[in-house]
Design goal:
Helices cover 39% and strands 17% of the residues. The chain contains eleven helices and 16 strands. It has a seven-stranded mixed β-sheet, sandwiched between helices. A four-stranded mixed β-sheet has the order 11-8-9-14, with helices on one face. It has a three-stranded antiparallel β-sheet with strand order 1-2-3, covered by helices on one side. The protein is globular, with a radius of gyration of 20 Å. The chain binds 5-S-methyl-1-O-phosphono-5-thio-D-ribulose.
Length: 355
């Protein structure tokens, strides 16, 4: 994919404004934290891994002009910057994992000067960026083994280049399969309310010359049955220690439908999307967004202006509905609690299944 979602350019963050896609290709230059925070909040930059990269660069942005040499004051500023960035969106754990990595730089180097801390923070932020590029390609290669010539697959939201630095998780699997010469087609759910599937996935896959058909979310069951969908691939925003996975609202519905139609349901996500401190998906914080997003789109109001609205941005798919989780370390099969801890090296706690 010839699109870079987010970059550090000289002294600031440059990101493609995803609220303007697919019709306008416009970039936002974030010279201050408020501009970045707003960009995250209104989904100009979005997708769990991209939010992790934004958080790393955001810390750089928040401390680059720190004056003086006081370590205490610098450490306090880093904590404040992390708290501020962390208040932007609650669900994607990549954002918080990246902030933890940035804070850990100071803890690992207690004797460093402020100038050295700034340099080390920059190195860590670029490492998060570079790791994303490599990890996505690795997940893509693992996942491509699950796609076969002639198959039709389904996806939701945008788990592509635009949700990462430049390749994607679920869509990275499609790019890797394409690089291996496989011929397949993709059905993309439009993903109401903010239409990441219609606006972003359709644009990305068309640009990559992958055969894509856009459908309304409510068509998924019919398409699974009548078009003989071979597999569903989705990304994730946070995966608990037992494999329960939060992703864009509508993912759980797809998983239920996939089970009914005996279609494998694959979650594609890097280590940075796992939250092993949570025993199950019941503990994942789910962002609720403004009612206006459901009442209409882009300023056009479709519903009565004062109708009551429920607008959770994500849902949780219980581990029992997930066939495998594709990570950069390989494909994790059930039982997830045991196998996730084996792959990532943490002792499993007993947990209750997500309903
Ligand atoms: O609200 P968004 O657009 O940030 O939601 C994004 C998703 O749900 C993606 O599927 C998820 O972050 C995985 S992206 C590789």
């Amino acid at each position: 994919m010839a699109v870079t979602t987010i970059q550090w350019v000289k002294d600031h963050i440059k990101l493609i404004d995803q609220t303007r896609l697919p019709h306008d290709i416009v970039y936002i230059d974030c010279h201050d934290l408020k501009t970045l925070w707003d960009a995250i909040r209104r989904l100009s930059v979005r997708g769990a891994p991209a939010l992790g990269v934004a958080a790393g660069f955001g810390v750089m942005l928040g401390v680059k002009d720190f004056p003086g040499a006081s370590q205490d004051k610098f450490a306090r500023q880093v904590r404040q910057v992390c708290d501020y960035i962390g208040s932007s969106r609650p669900t994607a754990v990549n954002l918080f994992n990246a902030l933890d990595r940035m804070k850990a730089v100071l803890e690992r180097n207690p004797g460093a000067s402020v100038a050295q801390w700034k340099r080390l923070l920059k190195e860590e932020a670029f490492l998060i960026y570079e790791e994303d590029r490599q990890v996505c390609r690795s997940m893509g290669r693992w996942g491509a083994s699950l796609i076969h010539d002639g198959e039709k697959v389904m996806t939701i939201c945008n788990a592509g280049a635009l949700a990462t630095v430049d390749y994607g998780t679920a869509l990275g699997v499609f790019y890797a399969a394409q690089e291996q010469g496989k011929i397949f087609s993709v059905y993309a759910c439009e993903t109401r309310p903010l239409l990441q599937g219609a606006r972003l996935t359709a644009w990305e896959l068309m640009k990559a010359r992958i055969d894509i058909t856009l459908i309304c979310d409510s068509m998924a069951a019919t398409v699974m049955r009548d078009k003989r969908i071979a597999a569903v691939f989705t990304g994730a925003d946070r995966i608990a220690a037992n494999g329960d996975a939060a992703n864009k609202i509508g993912t759980y519905s797809l998983a239920v439908l996939a089970r009914h139609h005996k279609i494998p349901f694959y979650v594609v996500a890097p280590r940075s999307t796992f939250d092993l401190s949570l025993q199950s998906g019941a503990q994942i914080p789910i962002e609720e967004r403004d009612a206006s997003e459901v009442r209409g789109f882009n300023g056009q109001v479709a519903a009565p202006r004062t109708v009551k609205v429920f607008n959770p941005a994500f849902d949780v798919t219980g581990n029992r509905l997930i066939t495998v989780i594709i990570t950069e370390h390989g494909i994790i099969k059930p039982p997830f609690t045991r196998n996730i801890s084996r792959v990532f090296g943490k002792k499993p706690k007993s947990c209750r299944a997500y309903p």
